[in-house]
Amino acid sequence: FRTLCTGERGISPSSQHPLYYKNSTIHRSIKDFMIQGGDFTKFNGTGGESIYGGTFADEDLTRPLDAEALLCMANKGPNTNNSQFFVTLRACPHLNGA
């Protein structure tokens, strides 16, 4: 996440997109749940790219989503993380371990 905030990786060798969040938007907002952003390739929630190229595996899923303002990786299922993230607006126990 920090690397995509600073842009220190420069341009992606595979997609030729800049690897940073600058100019990306919050493309999804669900009241009392979360806001989502981080799609800097298509800017609509269907894209994104990790600093590793493509997607990367899930990391530590043991931290409970038990508060507001938690920064989390957004994905389309197991091991599909890219640059998209979400911030919780309340506790989200239904996402624990997901």
TrEMBL record:
Catalytic activity: [protein]-peptidylproline (omega=180) = [protein]-peptidylproline (omega=0)
Cross-referenced SUPFAM superfamilies: Cyclophilin-like
One GO CC term, this protein: cytoplasm
GO MF assignments: cyclosporin A binding; monooxygenase activity; peptidyl-prolyl cis-trans isomerase activity
Enzyme class: isomerase
A single BP term in Gene Ontology: protein folding
InterPro entries (alphabetical): Cyclophilin-like_dom_sf (IPR029000), Cyclophilin-type_PPIase_dom (IPR002130)
Keywords (A to Z) from UniProt: Isomerase, Monooxygenase, Oxidoreductase, Rotamase
Domain PPIase cyclophilin-type as annotated: residue spans: 1-98
Enzyme Commission numbers on file: 5.2.1.8
UniProt keyword Isomerase, yes or no: yes
Keyword DNA repair: no
Assigned protein family: Belongs to the cyclophilin-type PPIase family.
Function: PPIases accelerate the folding of proteins. It catalyzes the cis-trans isomerization of proline imidic peptide bonds in oligopeptides.
Protein name per its UniProtKB record: Peptidyl-prolyl cis-trans isomerase
Species of origin: Asterophora parasitica
Upper taxonomic lineage: Eukaryota, Fungi, Dikarya, Basidiomycota, Agaricomycotina
